[in-house]
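Subgroup meeting minutes
Present: P.N., E.W., G.H.
Scribe: E.W.

1. P.N. recapped why we're keeping a running log of single-chain structure predictions: easier to compare across weeks, and new members can see raw inputs and outputs side by side.
2. G.H. added today's entry (347 aa).
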Amino acid sequence: MDYKGAGVDIDSAGALVARVRDLARSTYTSGVLSDIGAFGGVFRPELAGLDDPVLVASADGVGTKLKVAFAAGRHDTVGVDLVNHCVNDILVQGARPLFFLDYLATGALRPDVSAAVVAGVADGCRANGCALLGGETAEMPGMYAAGEYDLAGFVVGIADRRRLVDGRGIVPGDVLIGLPSSGLHTNGYSLARRIVFETLGLGVDSRVDELGCTVGDELLRIHRSYLRAVWPAVEAGLVKGLAHVTGGGLTDNLPRILPPGCSAHIDRGAWRAPPIFTFLQARGDVPTADMYRTFNMGIGMVLVCNRGAEPELLAALAEAGEAGAVRIGTVRPGAPGVAYRGADGGP
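Output recorded in log:
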């Protein structure tokens, strides 16, 4: 009996590391002082211009969106999703990413699939200006169904302590600016998959006229990174708070940045949700409250600013290439929470 006979192929893992090394090197920034294959990644941050530098870290996964990738046999996008999600999570605290680590676990290593996943991670890192500093590929027979894997990511960023964005300065009268999502991003897939695949009996290659594409194309749309659009406004001190609209939707994520005495009031008529959301609600008979607590409903990031700073903020976003920014509501007195009014007959 040997290790390969037990299901772990060390030679294949070694060959994968060689392929990953080139992908990682393509993301390296000037701060990287180590190479893939070392026991740990070494990074020297550039601290010039930071009066009181602090590190901001986050970890996340892609959730059951991976199930769609398995069904479609497309593995080059979920890595981008992972990086963008993590980068957005530290962006909302006023941090820019320095480096990223990934964790890929599977029952039986398939080098081509693993390389495609890591290639997506590298693409995301390059686009966000951070280095893929290291990671782990684990082969664990018996832990995962055949052809499946799990994926997680870890990002470390840096911020100037005096410029941390924590929402403490938010007051009634402030304005909520929403930035459009590209689709479901990486949340709500357990419900979406149940509606699309189980209730409707569709497959990843089924074309849906309302969506103008196949199910696989729609559900694998990449989770947007908001770094390039939002960072100039963060540096200029134009935002008081930022909310990345992930699991829990607008309903649960906006209250995370509201101080006591402040409530978010959202006008649902201020923007048009992409067709995927109206499709899922109609075909799944999903209550409106559940839609806004499960999905991002077309708003992937919310910025809070002074009413007087709104024109300058919108101009900064437009200059950074964000044409879809729109006021979606205001902050009013009340307990932290979200109240809706508008388009679909809500209060």
